Give the backbone structure.
Amino acid sequence: MNTAKTMFWVTTVLLVALPARAGEDPVPVDSVVVFADRAEVTRVAAATCRQGSAKVTFPFLPVSLDVRTLRADASGRAHVIGTSSRVVPLEEDRDERVAKVQEEIEGVHDQIRTLQDSAHGYREGDGLMSAYGNYFLTLINEQVRSTRPGVRKWTQILDRMKKSRRDSARAQTELNQKVRKLQRKLERRQRRLANLQPRRVAEARRVEVSVDCRGEQRPKIRLSYVVPSATWHPEYDLRFVPKNQSKVGKGRAELTVAAVVQQSTGEDWENARLILSTSKPRLGSEAPYPAAVWINGRKAGDKKVLVATMERREQLRGPAGAVAGLQAVELEDQGQSFALRMPRRVTVRADGRPYWMPVDVASGPAESKLVCIPKMRPFVYQVVQLKNPAAYPLLSGRVHTYRAGSYVGDTHLRYKAPGEPMELSLGIDEEIKVERKDLRAKDRSPGFLSKTKHLEQAYRILLENRAGSRQRVEVRENIPVSKTEDVEVELVKKKTTPGYTLDTHRGFIAWKVWLARGQEKYVDLSYTVHLPEDWEVRSR
């Protein structure tokens, strides 16, 4: 066992939040493994050993990382002793700046109060001057009756009063202007204080790794951890090129496998190696324990019931709608877990936006056909049939289809193993019309000496070729499949158009119908369900 490579971890979360050190640079992200609902991030830093030991700091990590998943290892003979973790604020001098702005605000308040007190003094002086003015007018009225009034003295007093009022008005105007200027300054300081005091101070996690160097000078330290709020899902581009530019026939298909990655983990993945995994980790999960099973019953009546249900498995889907927002995808891995490794380093920002990235391109022979399932939809579709050309399974996802270089639309791909046949829609063919009619729905009671009743069903599918050339359409229908020995389903061959292929296990029946230009044809399907006379019939 190589003890130098053994991973040890001791995680301590400190409740006291210490500020991040000034001048520290984040350790670059080396690789990211993206799962369906989270991601495992790995960062690599070089340790500088002094006296046989070293301490490596990984600052500015997201607070949301799961401390239980912190793992560290060292290269060469170096050995990781353990890790410690704490949450720190991102800005060291925030409190000092807050105190400075608060002091400035208080100073502005003091200046405004001083100016307001001065203005109040001027207003009191104006009131006193008005009182003296009234008293002076009384004196003037008395001295007017004098034989020798002092006109010069009265004139000097009136001039001084006018000057005093003008000076007071000018001073109050200047004071009001200074107060308004200080109020604007106060509003700016208050806005700055609001920006310095958000509801939640930005924080980051700081991890320190202790290393026993064991003779190494600059060993590489790898730190990995798991963060939530990351996801990916597959997306495909299918380009089909027919050989002779005909509507149907053989050709070649090129499948571009891509991944759409979204993350809002709180950290950017700069120039990282990206690995897309289909596994679904469950942290803290426990093995299930069976619960008690209770059996009970009740009498439902004397008659048995036949219930006819239809499994809606539409292979020819319409255009897929857009999916908005950050969503965790339920990957369909069929019990197998594998990873797709991006061919080059990529950058994914923590902004929640979808990042489309091509992973691989595979090609192979393909064939286009005209297919209709009138029981499901009254349309004829162009489809392309091929085998999965990739060396790995294709997960469920959206497919953008192209025919002869032109975009056709979007469809959906279900899980396909390597080499498994697949069929994708290329859109509706408007030149072929299809219609399905009910011919017969009859319930025949048991005959003489018989205890079996019969349910007859019959349909007619009408086809019309409005294209400019001869076309072949594959018509697909199905008949019920009995899952009980008491019920039998019989295909009425005399009333069913010949030339069909029948899958007896699944009940699928298909015809390949040739239509000349402007020709109309029909296909008939008839079957009978035989069941005991005491059975009721219900459909849903």
The helical segments are 94-144, 151-196.
